[in-house]
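SEQUENCE, STRUCTURE TOKENS:
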Amino acid sequence: MKKETQSWTNILKYMIGKPKTTSLAILYPISRTKLATTISDAALKIDLKAIKLEVNPAKDFETVPQNLASILDNLTEDDFLIVIRGDNFINKMKLNNHFNTFSGLINSKARSLVLHMLIDAKNLTFLSDIDYEELISYTNTLKTKLENFKKVRIQTPIGTDLKFYPRKWSTLPIKPNDEIKNGMLPAGQLFTTPIESRSNGTIVIDRCVSEFPIDFKDIIPFPKIENELILEIEKGRIVKTEGKQEADFLKNECLARVDYNGYTLGEVTFGTNPNKSLENNIAIQEVLRDTIHFGFGLNTHLGGDTVSNVHWDAVIEFDHDEIEYY
């Protein structure tokens, strides 16, 4: 516990700094109580007393409890909010009018930090207690290289060979500040929405595939990758799948239920977090520096134009030094 507390002390020092911050609020579901307590203890080490806002998404609230809504609505630019996601409580408790996962608090100047809902406390701590200046430097260097070229080729020893034409390269926010009010952890993603009709080649998946949220309601868990799963891409769309049981599952259980655009390559993302892990968790794998992942389907949340009833990701192991530029 002491080690975790020290890690979060390091994280808070970087994220909050020594500001004008007068109070820290931690919003979390009951299932994340232990992590909330760890962060609260860490805050005391930098002379910040945390207000713990525990919610129970199992209860059927028709409206947000008035005291909770009032606290969120009255946070000022001198305050900081940490949201430990879990149990989908933002939607269940109808907090969408007060908080957005990507942009932070609505109608508030307070800064906020969102922790991923699909990563346990141990891995969240592991992926977040890093050298952020090194992470930013690495990410910006890679971004500068990629921005200088119109076409990119990704090749791996086991058979991935994909060429695509990127649009704008972007990063998810890390440290909240006066301009960008919301940060997200774990950090480490550099992404683009490729020109759909100009992506061609082969993707050989060897790390993991995400869940398939059909209509963003019916969640289909994808089995652990035991055998290579091959996707053939022509003009930005999956035209063929090959492999063993993973390919059968993808074709019959998942792709059979997606709309036309669910086959469309809509995202290419380089992980830039310096840590390594082989854990079968999409949220962990997609930020790691030894991976790249490909997103299919909906990409409007990433700045693209593709609308679909699904967004799903496939992660491969990749050495960033092997990128070919054109």
